[in-house]
Amino acid sequence: MAAAAGVSTAAVSQAVNGTGRISEATRRRVLDAAAELGWSPSASATALRRARTRTIALVVRRPTDVLGADPHFSELITGLEGELAPRGYGLLLHLVADMAQESALYERLVAEGRIDGAVLTDARADDPRPQLLRGLGLPAVLLGASDPASPVPGVGLGQQGAGVREAAAHLLELGHRRLAYIAGPADLVHTGLRRAAFEEALAEAGLRPVAVRHTDFTEEAAVAVTEELLSLPDRPTALVFPNDSMAVCGIGTAQRGGFRVPEEVSVVGYDNLPLGRWLHPRLTTVDQQVQRVGAAAARALLAQCGENVPPPVLDGRPRLVVRESTGPLPSAP
Amino acid sequence: MAAAAGVSTAAVSQAVNGTGRISEATRRRVLDAAAELGWSPSASATALRRARTRTIALVVRRPTDVLGADPHFSELITGLEGELAPRGYGLLLHLVADMAQESALYERLVAEGRIDGAVLTDARADDPRPQLLRGLGLPAVLLGASDPASPVPGVGLGQQGAGVREAAAHLLELGHRRLAYIAGPADLVHTGLRRAAFEEALAEAGLRPVAVRHTDFTEEAAVAVTEELLSLPDRPTALVFPNDSMAVCGIGTAQRGGFRVPEEVSVVGYDNLPLGRWLHPRLTTVDQQVQRVGAAAARALLAQCGENVPPPVLDGRPRLVVRESTGPLPSAP
């Protein structure tokens, strides 16, 4: 190729890798020669110089079966695709078991020039990914967390505890005093934020949750926790779940156990998935606008990739949507 | 590069593209020289010769909002990922509006060397994709359909109408005579197969459905159809839906309208999603083993890509899972 272009092999290397100080004309001549040799028309060859794959990575650090059970990810993907699809971008989905696998995967995908950017989910305290991705030079956004010191911009609603705080206030206003909080895994940032908000709201009323249970987000966990809590001698009169799937399971499990919802047990979900509108009773839940957050994340990332997109608009916060699965405290028998 | 390797530029081209008749030693020498120039470690360079991207495409020809509403796709992706993730493969998800966009996308992805294979969903009569993908030389599997004449192997359960047939038989045995069938879009192969099976089962009992409604699979459609059917003067006593999300909406809508399920209306879903086990009443549904079909599709495709995987095992057929949302015909008032 150096011979074909009439330049040194070092110049070929520099032209190909986009390094060094060769002139644009030389670079052009090398790449033209490469084209004649059959390299250039392929976007893979382009990817060698600068990633432009029209592919965004979404790496999910969950067991595969949770992906199926929790519609949250479908909602997120829907929001992302709403911005990616019209621009011809695809979403490269990888499931990994742990953070080490996730980090190794970004390194491989960047080394192989397969992606233009990444959407990071499930922010953790001491998250190694922002530093890693900055080191790799990969555009990225982090869902949920918004740490101004982080090299990766956060995309999400502000005041992450606001929805759960509203849920607690709503239940207190209905007269509930025995509230249980079912949480996600303890190592997730949003788990901590929401739990703290719930406990603070109760503390302001001089109360503490009668129970807090961490779960792995599965429906099986929702059933087991609901059965356990409703069999307590001093059972809670209100259950607050970390997602809608679990809340729906909680309602079904309570009804099956002979408890009327909301007459005897109030139930609150989280995510405001479409299904909750149509159930009977309709689900009271926290709307965290998963689709809109996904859309905003896609726009923020596309802008980093040099696409001309409208700025992401997310001026809201999580809000409680009161429907039918919450009601006044049952009067004492 | 030719200079570095001490060969002709034609040999470089042949080595790089894997074409021509150069010896393995020459090819090796060229690639070693390329490596020294900084090309070789990148898988993108390899992709120029032969796609080996560890990426499988899943192109979904649906509006983005259906993806969020219908957990079917989460289940399918879960099944695919169960086989792909442990082998380091990713799933490249693209949403497209129509078949023309879908075809153009395969052409681009193959031209750019971005994928090793594709999983095709939503088989249609006169499906152009199998011929297209054969022409592109892209490994592929087609979910559901199993046309022996097709150049793309089908992966799916046999006897696609079997589950709906069982559902009809179950309802007839419970004494129902006024059955309504809610179907998916009319242009999908499985819609036709299932509807035909349902109508045949009723015909054998000397009956016809009191109503058949085609829908776009959305929850809104489920609510509207349920309201419409239950307000008919000669309303159906049993509703058979094309997916579980719609069935759950149907149950909620019936209950909201004052109908007890199953005492006054029986409801059958399709897909056997996890949620149905926990609702009250638990959902009677057709198990088409979406996750297992996804896993089998992944294995079939990985084998075509040269991976050493166990053969896909799918010896079943869709089967009715009887739970609590179906019951005996209500006795006449």
Give me a quick take on this structure.
Chain A has three domains: 2-47, Orthogonal Bundle (434 Repressor (Amino-terminal Domain)), CATH 1.10.260; 55-158 and 290-304, 3-Layer(aba) Sandwich (Rossmann fold), CATH 3.40.50.2300; 162-288, Response regulator (Rossmann fold). In chain A, 42% of the residues lie in helices and 14% in strands. Chain A is built from 13 helices and eleven strands.
CATH architecture of the largest domain in chain A: 3-Layer(aba) Sandwich
SSE string of chain A: HHHHEHHEHEHEEHEHEHEHEEHE
Mean pLDDT of chain A: 85
CATH class of the largest domain in chain A: Alpha Beta
Provide the number of structural domains of chain A.
3
Q: What is the assembly state of the chains in this entry?
A: homodimer
How much β-strand is present in the residues of chain A?
Answer: 5-15%
The poorly predicted ranges of chain A are 15-20, 34-51
Question: Alpha-carbon distance between the termini of chain A?
Answer: 89 Å
Derived structural class of chain A: alpha/beta
Helix content of chain A: 40-55%
Largest sheet of chain A: 6 strands, mixed
CATH topology of the largest domain in chain A: Rossmann fold
Principal-axis shape of chain A equals elongated
Rg over CA atoms of chain A: 25 Å
Biggest interface, chains and residue tallies:
A-B, 71 and 73 residues
Pfam family, one (chains A, B): LacI
GO molecular function, one term (chains A, B): DNA binding
InterPro entries (chains A, B): HTH_LacI, LacI/GalR-like_sensor, Lambda_DNA-bd_dom_sf, Peripla_BP_I
Domain HTH lacI-type (chains A, B): 1-50
